[in-house]
């Protein structure tokens, strides 16, 4: 196991991570993901891992309090006095402020990458020394493949909001959906995105001009690649036909793997943060046309920093991908009622608006989108969507995809 000190949660300010942290994270995460995947897939007897991947045990059912009272929950939470919630987004700090202002309960929101959060929760649970009360998870595979089945985390659904949350979003509980999109600099390309097709990014003219997070350190990007192979091959084949006027021929296992091979071999610039991507693509000082594959949360830089960014509207067969963000409670939380109250809060517009302020969709169907990022007018039609039913498959297949990416990256 890695040194616990190396897995301490990173709490640097939004968008500001030192080079040392980025380098260290890149080195540790691939091994951590492999360890997590093996643990999730292997039976408790220590039998062959492959055998454990064939039939996953059903998730424990979501907990729903039969005699729910929000007033009673608030009173119980106030007696507990505080809570700590981990999230991969710095937006959790704004959520924490709003929660504390509303309920008078001290909430600490900690920005921490999902793999580090999962590792910390595993260690705390084993040591009976839990400091994380609840967490937001972008890595649904680890959540459904390990944390929930092993009893480290659990799903709780607010009874008074149950009917507002589609049944398929109950277990695990979908708090919101975010997106990672291909973006360009509107000042350098005033006539629109210079890339019209995802296969364009595999051509020599775009070598070294795609800036993206390293998939080996970003679970959502890795999940996107595994999901492409699961249910995106037809769309990729059609896009290839559109661009080249002929059917795709490949020696790889699928169109997805052929695209991954060509993309990774075309020298994409890999970073450790979306903030770096946004700066490389949209900053006022940018002089070279580049395409960024980044979170829509970075569109805040258009207003905050004077950046010129837009999604590659019309790009075939998709502009980017959406991914789910779940909320779960630590099974051994020392502030269980405060954790429940947080879950209730994040499942309402009052709470989730701080997470979807730059774009996103709440898991509560009654909460309407607040902002449409430039170039992303049709969330449903423009994006490749993560299939929640494939989360466990993502976890089981990610090492194969990781190795394939590593082998072909130029």
From TrEMBL:
<protein>
    <submittedName>
        <fullName>ABC transporter substrate-binding protein</fullName>
    </submittedName>
</protein>
<keyword id="KW-0732">Signal</keyword>
<dbReference type="InterPro" id="IPR006059">
    <property type="entry name" value="SBP"/>
</dbReference>
<dbReference type="Pfam" id="PF13416">
    <property type="entry name" value="SBP_bac_8"/>
</dbReference>
